[in-house]
Amino acid sequence: MRPSEVRQSAESPLISGAVPAGAPTVLRMMLGSRLRKLREACGMTREDAGEAIRGSHSKISRLELGRTGFRVRDLTDLLDLYGVTDPTEREEFLELARQGNQSGWWHRDNDWLPRWYDTYLGLEQAATLVRAYEPRAVPELLQTPEYARALLSLAHSGELQPDIERRVALRMRRQEILNRPHPPQLWVIVEEAALRRPIGGSAVWNAQINHLLKVVEKRNITVQVLADHVGGPALADGAFTMLRFAEADLPDIVYLQQLTSALYLDKQADVDAYRAVANQLSVHAAPPEYTVSLLEALRRRQPPILDQPAGTRRV
């Protein structure tokens, strides 16, 4: 395929009005994908392109994956290299770069947000489908502030309370995607053991279960409960999230969060493997129409727990 054919077949998101409302991250990925197709159509390697912009092949890789923003000089040099000469078309690329270089609403927290998590927030904001498996706790997008605060206080026990509150506020802000005019579909499979775990004590736990009973009634939210005897952790090594986007240029992405970093998998073989596991977990989990009754039964069976005020001792 010639470079001109690549440009004709890749519909400009700016002309079509399909620019995602959420995330500069996705805009950078769209731009990087189009530039990669142009480079490949020209028969050039990443080393060739890197030399043209006074960089390395790893820099071209980061640009094509949307992991970093574009400098105007680098972008115009690449467009020259790939034979993109039409002024209107060049301006479309430049405008996409300008929008992709903007900061997301979470930028105000970049003094403590790790860069790898910044990337995830951008992807989550622009996804049309968020599919996840959670064996440890209630999924973050469905947590109440009190439940999130209890979890975050455990995970970041050395932090001051104002810092914990910033983390809680960020998590609650993320949840706004579920209530916007065109929300993503959220499909989560959560372990029964995770739901039984009384994070924060009885009052917090009961409020969290009540919240789940409300949100599962929404058309864009599907929650399935995986019974303990199924052994979900034997099917999946741990929690994972799959993200899908409306843009045809973008592949599905699997997100794996680790203690101090994260992995983003977009190779077809990796995505297919995790999709197969997600499908298997879904088959073994109770159908979504049973979720309400299961949550209600869980609430009835859970023994009362004494919420002990901090700083006191039980005698």
Q: What labels describe this entry?
A:
315 residues; alpha/beta; six-stranded mixed beta sheet; 50% helix; 10% strand; disordered N terminus; disordered C terminus; Cro/C1-type_HTH; Helix-turn-helix domain-containing protein
Cross-sheet strand order for the largest sheet: 3-2-1-4-5-6
Whole-angstrom Rg: 23 Å
Report mean pLDDT, rounded to a whole number: 85
- Number of helical runs? 15
Task: Describe the sheet with the most strands.
Answer: 6 strands, mixed
Q: Helical amount among residues, as a percent range?
A: 40-55%
Kindly report how far apart the N and C termini lie: 78 Å
Secondary structure tally: strands = 6
Q: How large is the share of residues in beta strands? A: 5-15%
Topology:
Elements: H1 3-9, H2 13-16, H3 24-41, H4 46-52, H5 57-64, H6 72-81, H7 87-100, H8 115-126, E1 129-134, H9 145-155, H10 161-174, E2 185-191, H11 192-196, H12 202-215, E3 221-226, H13 232-235, E4 240-244, E5 253-257, E6 262-265, H14 268-284, H15 291-301
Parallel strand pairs: 1-2, 2-3
Antiparallel strand pairs: 1-4, 4-5, 5-6
Helix pairs in contact: 3-7, 4-5, 6-7, 9-10, 12-15
Give an overview in words.
50% of the residues lie in helices and 10% in strands. By secondary structure, the chain is of the alpha/beta class. Strands 3-2-1-4-5-6 form a six-stranded mixed sheet, with helices on both faces. A hairpin with an 8-residue loop joins strand 4 (240-244) and strand 5. Helix 3 (24-41) packs across helix 7 (87-100) and helix 4 (46-52) crosses helix 5 (57-64). Residues 1-22 and 309-315 have low confidence and may be disordered. Residues 35-90 form the HTH cro/C1-type domain.
